[in-house]
Fold this sequence. Notes:
Number of strands: 6
Number of helices: 5
Structural class: alpha/beta
Largest sheet: 6 strands, mixed
Order of helices and strands: EEHEHEHHHEE
Strand order of the largest sheet: 2-1-3-4-6-5
Shape: globular
Distance between the termini: 15 Å
Radius of gyration: 15 Å
Amino acid sequence: MKVYISQRPPADDSYVAINDLGVLDILVEDSEATEIIVDNFLTKFPFSEIGGIVQKLASKLRSKGKIVFYQSEIDMICYQRSRSMIDLDRLNEILFAQGEIRSVLPVENLVDLLQSFGLTIRSKELHDTCQALIVATR
């Protein structure tokens, strides 16, 4: 099973779309997912809940399964803003394009969380759009 977690629908219909974590346990058994894509979704939750959410997502991965995170990289955003590389309009566009946010999580903290739950980081990319792409496997 391939799962896409986001406020937006997936571009590929082969993914089960989830926009509410309340249905995750109903739709996906533990160790069932071969691939999970989390598209700018963690920011919808308070920072104090992120660890538990990442742990829950990791539990849904099958052995050799892959989880992919797309998210805004707050450290890069702050760096670029502090050096006037992006203006205030762009800052707000980056942070709030997906709607209301309740937290931010630097890439390195997400990497540490994933590793603490037994996942292996396969790739980590930072794009000039201030988006990060992290791929981890079980």
